[in-house]
Write a structure and sequence with these properties.
Layout lengths: L2 H7 L20 H14 L12 H8 L3 H14 L2 E3 L5 E3 L27 H7 L4 E2 L12 H14 L14 H15 L8 E4 L1 H15 L6 E4 L3 H9 L6 E5 L2 E2 L8 E4 L13 H12 L3 E5 L23 E5 L11 E4 L5 H12 L4 H12 L2 H27 L4 E3 L6 E5 L6 H10 L2 E2 L1 E2 L11 E5 L5 H18 L2
Helix pairs in contact: 2-4, 3-4, 6-12, 7-12, 8-9, 8-11, 13-15, 14-15
Length: about 475
């Protein structure tokens, strides 16, 4: 007999704790229902961060369900990063879910997802309310290492000289550039002198600085992969650069089709298709650089890998490459901290561009990050979130197989997103727009194409729980089925 029915037959109506009532649980779904109730209570503050959950045997007795139901629900919160087992202390709330913004009654949200997105589209997407956000590019924000950050910040402030609060080197704090050089050597195989590193406000600023300098050097265009990041292209267009598309196949960019003087690449995990730039293509690219070509390498999420060996950065083999990365996918985009490796050809101009942009990044955040890098705390954080992201990636693959049969999954071996493609009958813009109307955010693959290609969706999984992923993909499956003629 179903556990919920058993509880009802015994006369149980619930618990004083959060006014839980097992009669509200769907048949056969007690643990899932309980996990949702607890997650909602954490999100709205009824269960504060630092608060302790009831002992599993106590709550099970109050609800008159088996203890296994409660322990399974608690384990789901632990897997999601919202709770942690603390031995004798019990299960403690450690992080609140990130909720979408509430729709303001006096604010109208115009149609966000259209076939021709404007420059404001990503701001509009972030502001649009949704119950399940599967847009790509965001790590698990609940996993931000608050305790480690606070410890590092206290240690930094205890040691900080008054001079550090003044204007500094526009390239960034020397200790941060040293820490980044060591981080890149350990994790990306890149040997670089700290003097070649410019700290920037994320990859977005790096692309803007590079775009400005390329224009100063007389370039009018920079080739991009097709498909490629719509956001990156928007930054380059803002700098006055054209972005001619170059096809991508299973081995990455078709270097033989590269005719522009410069190219922007995501070789370790191509966005959005997830392929790796193959060995022969890398050799072709090296020959192209030797003939004067300019490569800008966006190494946006190479640290997150699950089913494959590490892929070396192109910059580790070609010192002339402009290389950029950030902690947006490692910790949080809100930190706005990244780095740009400036080859000799453009170094002085890039430093000048950074100087006139903002005089340099905020120093305190740099010093804290440097300490996290140097103490090994950032590697520990990466191991924690990599395991969690893998579980969520697996949940999305299972959901796609169940709800989107016939869809082809791309790029699942690494990163924080995967892409699914459909046959030509599916209008991915229409599906994404309908999904947003139903409270599920995704990006249509056609946004990231400049040339015709198979329709699809780009789906982020890192910031959502397995349950949310399953619910969101199920909604997408229904919409795709309804969209077919």
């Amino acid at each position: 007999m179903d556990r919920a029915k058993t509880a009802l037959s015994e006369g149980s109506i619930g618990s004083d704790f959060l006014q839980l009532d097992v009669r509200e649980a769907p048949p056969g779904g007690l643990a899932d229902w309980l996990a949702r109730q607890l997650r909602a209570a954490i999100a709205d503050g009824r269960l504060p961060v630092g608060g302790r959950l009831p002992a599993s045997r106590v709550l099970a007795a109050e609800l008159r369900v088996s203890r296994g139901v409660v322990t399974e629900a608690y384990q789901r919160l632990i897997d999601d990063g919202h709770a942690a087992g603390r031995g004798r202390v019990g299960t403690v709330v450690v992080a609140a879910p990130v909720l979408p913004p509430d729709p303001s009654p006096d604010r109208l949200f115009p149609e966000v997802i259209t076939a021709l997105p404007g420059v404001e589209v990503f701001d509009a997407m972030r502001a649009a309310p949704a119950r399940i956000d599967l847009t790509p590019g965001v790590p698990d924000l609940t996993a931000f290492p608050r305790a480690a950050w606070l410890r590092a910040e206290r240690a930094v402030l205890d040691e900080l000289e008054p001079s550090h609060f003044g204007y500094g080197d526009p390239r960034g704090a020397p200790s941060m550039r040293l820490a980044v050089s060591r981080w890149l050597a350990r994790n990306r195989g890149i040997r670089v002198d700290p003097g070649e590193i410019i700290m920037v406000a994320g990859v977005a600023q790096a692309l803007t600085l590079v775009g400005e300098v390329l224009r100063q050097h007389g370039l009018a265009e920079i080739a991009v992969e097709d498909p490629s990041s719509l956001g990156a292209r928007q930054h380059l267009h803002h700098c006055g650069l054209a972005t001619p598309p170059v096809p991508v196949d299973d081995d990455g960019l078709l270097v033989s089709e590269l005719h522009a003087p410069a190219v922007l690449l995501t070789p370790a995990h191509q966005f959005p298709m997830g392929v790796v730039l193959g060995g022969e293509r890398r050799r072709e690219l090296m020959r192209w650089v030797a003939e004067g070509g300019i490569v800008v390498e966006d190494d946006y999420d190479a640290e997150h890998r699950y089913d494959r060996a590490p892929v070396p950065a192109v910059r580790s083999m070609v010192p002339e490459v402009c290389y950029t990365g950030s902690v947006s996918k490692l910790l949080a985009p809100a930190l706005r901290v990244g780095w740009l490796l400036a080859p000799p050809r453009f170094r002085d101009d890039l430093v000048a561009a950074k100087r006139f942009a903002d005089l340099g990044n905020p120093v305190l955040a740099q010093l804290v990050l440097a300490r996290l890098m140097e103490t090994g705390e950032l590697e520990r954080q990466l191991r924690v979130v990599r395991a969690r992201h893998r579980r969520r990636r697996d949940a999305m693959i299972r959901a796609v197989a169940a709800e989107l049969p016939g869809a082809v999954v791309h790029g699942a071996a690494a990163g924080l997103h995967l892409t699914v493609t459909f046959d030509a009958e599916v209008d991915d813009v229409a599906v994404a727009a309908a999904a947003l109307a139903e409270g599920v955010k995704v990006q249509p693959l056609s946004w990231h194409r400049q040339r015709p290609g198979r329709p699809g969706l780009v789906l982020g999984y890192a910031a959502r729980t397995a349950t949310e992923i399953a619910e969101g993909v199920a909604e997408l499956g229904r919409l795709v089925r309804d969209s077919r003629p």
